[in-house]
Amino acid sequence: MITLPVTIIYFLNGIGHLYYGYRLNKKFPKFHNMYDSIMLACLWVVAGIVYPFYYLDDNLILIGYLNICTIFICIFTPFMVWLILYYQKRNIKNNPSIRERRTVEKFIEIHGLTTKNNTHSFKTDITRKMLHLFPALLIMFLWLFAINIWGDLWSQEGIWGITAQDFGKMLILTVGYSGILIFAALDYVRLAPLLFERNLFHLLPDNVLNLLGKAMKGQELYGFTKPATLVLAFSTIFFFPFPIFFAAALIATLGDGAASIMGKCFGKKNFPKNSPKTLIGYMAGFIASLGVAFLSLIIFLQGLNLIKNIIISLAGATVFFLIDISTVKLDDNILNPIISAIVMNVLYIIL
What we know:
With 351 residues, the chain is an all-alpha fold. The protein contains 13 helices and no strands.
């Protein structure tokens, strides 16, 4: 019952994203991928369903913390988003010129976004990959904070029956689930002018627009932001042991980043020929995925046999390579973390 509001708000967002996806696909069929929208809506629903199952302990203190988490996700976060939009509305009322310069047309013109192709500059690629990497780095920081700082203060057994791992899990889930809602709200506002007569684009703060403009491909104007998709995918694999989960998160971020950046800098031979992806990019992505998975298992899963570590890491890197080289129409930000985590966890159990 305590987690029910989180489930409801995520169900509603799943419906909202599916509706937006349907409208975008109907209006911009050449640029919007309806398969991604359907999968994204499913991820919203799954994230809402699994949230209560992260907390199965009947510890009264844990339940008290869980109440705080639910309040933060379902009340504080939406209120903060409303406060930002309300402030922008009041600011525009006092400065009407802001409304004129904050339009979709000017946003596209300033950042040079085009739908003629799906390529982008090296600078844009760096910004995109840093934005994708941020969730994984934040997860690592919160986990290390809970284990090494909160755990040292109260001992690894924690206080009042709550372990450092429990606290870390609560921090990651609360920050992650709240962050996804913020991205969703901004997407609703950003995409509204493309679908409805009422223009809300001017309510987005300048720093948000600048960040989006620097990290977007032209065709992504007609879809949802990728970091939110990535974090939603993370929410479905958080049940796995933390080292496996974190290895999959790094494969989906650092592995993808290495493939894209190295391919753009040094890649000369494209494969397939009509694809912007290169053989150098595939190799870089595989090696980076192998490396980050191996290090993640060594650091967070101490005592694991070296051979088992290599086999599990190779499996994760291979999954990344196969998804990267495939022509599947689904977003690799969804497929990479989920499939690599499943494969690595199965091997971890078997071995």
